[in-house]
């Protein structure tokens, strides 16, 4: 599941709201460095480093950099064309109007399915390679 993916990362970027959720549920996995991405650099992120990302040069340099974010972080990074893979879990639950994967950003990516597996009782995890930004 998510923990298995996180363990393969050298660092993980978290959106500020995602950081709050993971902190409240104490779901940090040992191994990677966690970095909170926020435009409010005075936000309380505990012991975690925080950064603002406006362009590619603001990205921290790691071999395997993961992203666990909401639509705003996902969308802003997709628009910068820095996402090369997407792992998407489909849960068998409807959540009203839902949350957009890329927030309010108009993101168009061509994806190639490179793996799919069932995790848990009825969750499907699809692994995609981003082949181009449209």
Brief descriptors of the model:
single chain; 134 residues; alpha/beta; 4-stranded parallel β-sheet; 3-stranded antiparallel β-sheet; 7 strands; 19% helix
How large a portion of the residues is in β-strands, by DSSP E? 25-35%
The major β-sheet equals: 4 strands, parallel
Order of helices and strands: HEHEEEHEEE
Would you tell me the overall average pLDDT? 91
| Number of continuous helical runs | 3
Widest beta sheet: strand line-up: 3-2-1-4
Large-scale geometry: globular
| Class computed from helices, strands and strand pairing | alpha/beta
Q: Which spans of ≥5 residues are poorly predicted at pLDDT below 50?
A: none
From the alpha carbons, calculate the radius of gyration and give it in angstroms.
Answer: 15 Å
Helix fraction, binned, reads 10-25%
First and last CA, distance: 29 Å
Number of strands: 7
Structure commentary:
- The mean pLDDT is 91.
- Helix content is 19%, strand content 34%.
- The two termini are 29 Å apart.
- Strand 6 (109-119) and strand 7 form a beta hairpin.
- With 134 residues, it is an alpha/beta fold.
- The protein is built from three helices and seven strands; from the N terminus they run αβαβββαβββ.
- The strands form two sheets. The protein has a four-stranded parallel β-sheet.
- The radius of gyration is 15 Å and the shape is globular.
